[in-house]
Amino acid sequence: MTFKFLKAQNGDCTVIKYIDDSGTRRNIIIDAGLDAAYFDQTNNVFGELKAEVEDIKTKKENIDLLILTHIDNDHICGFLKLFEMDDEIPAFIKKVWFNSGKLIAEELKKKENKMLTISMLQAGVTNTGVAEGIDFENFLLRFKFWERKLILCGQEHEVHDAKFQILGPTIPQLKKLLKEYHEETGDDNYTGAGGNDWGTDIESFILEEKAKGFRFSQDNSPKNGSSISFILELQGKKFVFLGDAHPNPVAKALADQGYNAQTPLKVEFLKVSHHGSKANNNKKLLAVIDTDKYLVSTNSVGHGHPHKRTLSRIISKNPNAIFHFNYENVWEGVFNESDRNKYKINAYLTPHLDF
Question: Which phi and psi (to 5°) does residue 110 adopt?
Fold first, then answer.
């Protein structure tokens, strides 16, 4: 089985390819980054997601599961562009997971938050001058692949030998999304907008966080908190995908399954939450996940992700940590020479991992 970590600008897009017990080739796509992951209109070039989709179609395979973890632009826009430009693609999709604003409101019997509505151009239309859009949820309802059921913490699902234990979101997190979400117009203090922290060395971060009085500040974005996060078990191996999830609820979900710092969950890799944000990956969460491989997806444009503070927490907890990045500038830039010499950093530019 192969996990591909596509170039999705400052977003996420993972393609999982494997052969199930019946010998059938299966494909799972988790998030789709910004538009350019599929088509970069500024430079008039297609992205890596386009190539993966065409490969699936050419081989007469299917997208057996398409997961939209939450509705941030850096996770959904590539999907919107795919549906807008490829009117054949619905025939290749078998199942979709998507907690839409309207679905959440209906299931929880709460008032709908109109700001959560997603619009897209008509399928097949690429002209930027065309203003007419359709509601993404109504578009999905044209097809049978979206069952329109909430994906929630505590659920277990199996899709063609792939087993999922859902870690989030919780119902309170979805209620908060409906009640508190509003369009963000300013800098988000929790995501580090305005620059990165790569100029500080790892040792300084580790010492600061060991000092008395250091206080962790958790991300407070309702959208990030609504992320679908999960443990994936495939061919006897386990992997954790966190989307942009908040760390404390995920740690609690793991604790409810019996995992703690003494008996952590052993996995092949952790897809680090929110592109390595310091507000989405705390020591409490890292302590209950046992792995040497940490994956970070971002080109670091916009919010300065990954935060070196997060990577320092990981190194402090696990000196043997291996970091996998999907952009060269991050791989080359986040650790300085002092960091590499003192901590013998293991970091790689990793477009895919095979198991």
Answer: -120, 165
20 alpha-carbon distance from chain centroid: 24
Please identify, among 86, 117, 150, the residue that sits at the C-terminal boundary of a domain.
Answer: 150
CA of residue 214 relative to chain centroid, distance: 28
Distance CA 112, CA 297 (A): 32
> Does 208 share its domain with 104?
no
41 burial via Cβ count (<10 Å: 0-12, 13-18, 19+): exposed
Do the domain assignments include residue 164? no
Is residue 108 a part of any domain in this protein?
A: yes
In a domain, 159, yes or no: no
Residue 273 pLDDT greater than 50, yes or no: yes
What was the pLDDT predicted at 292?
A: 98
pLDDT digit string, tens, across residues 99-114: 999 999 999 999 999 9
Does the bond joining 306 to the residue before it have cis omega, within 30 degrees of 0? Answer: yes
How many separate helices (H) and strands (E) can be counted in the chain?
Answer: 12, 20
Domain of 57 in residue numbering reads as 2-150
Neighbours of 308 (CB within 10 A): 24
Query: What is the average per-residue pLDDT within 310-336?
Result: 97
What's the pLDDT band for 134 if we cut at 50, 70, 90? confident
Give start and end residues of each alpha helix (H) in the chain: 48-58, 73-85, 101-108, 136-140, 171-180, 202-210, 222-225, 247-256, 283-287, 308-317, 328-333, 337-343
Distance CA 167, CA 172 (A): 13
In angstroms, how far apart are the furthest CA atoms of the chain?
Answer: 59
